[in-house]
Design goal:
This protein has 365 residues and is an all-alpha fold. The protein folds into 3 domains: 95 residues, no CATH class; 176 residues, Fido-like domain (Fic-like fold); 82 residues, Winged helix-like DNA-binding domain superfamily/Winged helix DNA-binding domain (Arc Repressor Mutant, subunit A), CATH 1.10.10. The chain is 52% helix and 2% strand. A two-stranded antiparallel sheet has the order 1-2. Helix 3 runs antiparallel to helix 4, helix 8 crosses helix 12 and helix 16 crosses helix 17. The protein is globular.
Length: 365
């Protein structure tokens, strides 16, 4: 979406349009946690729903018909998943019904992913690991498959017993960060865990009296995801400790309308992508066409992760082409070419002559 069509609705004085605008904006934004992007057709359908032309049920029916007539040509194209799950999330966020139970959590996953994942609504029965950019290729230790239901039940029972009475807002936010990070870390589902947890958490926050109708989740879904990793990862020999500080910063913006910067580079465990260097203003003006790009603000989560991984594997000075991208990232030729094109368009890489056709290197930072 070149222009965000939902901003005006979030600011709408008419409650129904505001709430629907928030629901759709959040639903679409949450697809970034799995590197997915929605279609323009979905956006147009969402706007029709917000304007009252069609119901959520009709929106879902339109999407079903659309993808019957326009099936994906490539198995790697997950736009249909992004569109359908967005519509389902928007519908769930527009409902006020909610019960704080493990079954509700499982039900949300089933509602979001029926027809998309064969295991929709089911607890995984296998162990998983996932290499993550923010952890420099390491993985969080997720819940053991044999203990998932017991662990889930325990976390819910502990939260039900917890009292927020007489707590300061700092203490409330710290506890909420701890609760949602532990719920997410169980990783009850094989796929769709973060999106399900986010929807459940938003609905739970409402029962605690928080309005949660701003654009924080929509515009910072990847930061939310990465802060969950940092809340559940230890590498003590290298001085890395699990911390909820990043998640608490996210929640302060979400719940208290504070305005802390949420940059994914600050979450990377290496510290190599910390605060940006200070730029000489005169030099910046002279090189206006070569501005540095914060990749997490421009690309999808998946593409940004590929760019960071490529930079780490190939280095700043290396000259590379499509085959090098394929080998480094394990991508198909068409996707490797598309990634090179996207990076070149945003000035992240520059063409290099004298090494054959289609060769590039990372632009000097």
């Amino acid at each position: 979406m070149d222009k965000d069509p939902f901003k005006e609705y979030i600011k709408e004085s008419e409650p129904d349009k505001r709430d629907k605008g928030y629901a759709w904006h959040t639903a679409i934004g949450l697809q970034a946690v799995d590197g997915l992007k929605t279609s323009e057709y979905l956006v147009r359908t969402a706007v029709r729903n917000i304007e009252g032309e069609i119901t959520f049920e009709e929106a879902n029916e339109l999407l079903q018909s659309y993808y019957k007539e326009n099936p994906a040509r490539d198995a790697s194209d997950r736009t249909e998943e992004a569109d359908k799950v967005s519509a389902r999330i928007a519908a769930l966020l527009s409902e006020r019904a909610f019960s704080f139970t493990p079954n509700e959590y499982l039900s949300i996953h089933r509602k979001l992913f029926t027809g998309i994942y064969s295991h929709a609504g089911r607890i995984r029965d296998y162990n998983i690991t996932k290499k993550e950019w923010v952890l420099n290729g390491a993985t969080v230790l997720y819940g053991s498959a044999t203990e998932l239901r017991a662990t889930l039940d325990y976390d819910f029972s502990e939260e039900k017993k917890f009292s927020y009475k007489n707590l300061s807002m700092d203490e409330i936010i710290h506890h909420l960060a701890y609760f949602v990070s532990r719920l997410w870390q169980i990783h009850v589902f094989g796929e769709g865990n973060t999106r399900t947890t986010a929807v459940f958490f938003i609905k739970y926050l409402r029962t605690l009296g928080f309005d949660v109708t701003n654009d924080i989740f929509a515009e910072n879904a990847w930061y939310f995801r990465n802060s969950l990793f940092r809340a559940n990862y230890n590498d003590l020999k290298n001085g890395i400790h699990e911390t909820t500080e990043y998640l608490e910063t996210f929640l302060r913006n979400l719940l208290l309308d504070e305005n802390h910067p949420l940059h994914n580079r600050t979450l990377h465990i290496s510290g190599a992508f910390g605060e940006p260097e200070k730029v000489n203003i005169d030099e910046e003006k002279a090189n206006i066409g070569k501005e540095k790009v914060n990749i997490e603000d421009v690309f999808t989560a998946k593409t940004a992760s590929h760019i960071q991984e490529l930079r780490e594997k190939l280095g700043q000075q290396a000259v590379f082409g499509r085959s090098d991208v394929q080998n480094a990232l394990g991508l198909k030729p068409t996707r490797s070419s598309a990634l090179l094109r996207e990076m070149a368009e945003h000035g992240i890489i520059e063409p290099v002559s004298g090494h054959g056709k289609g060769k590039y290197r990372f632009r000097q930072q």
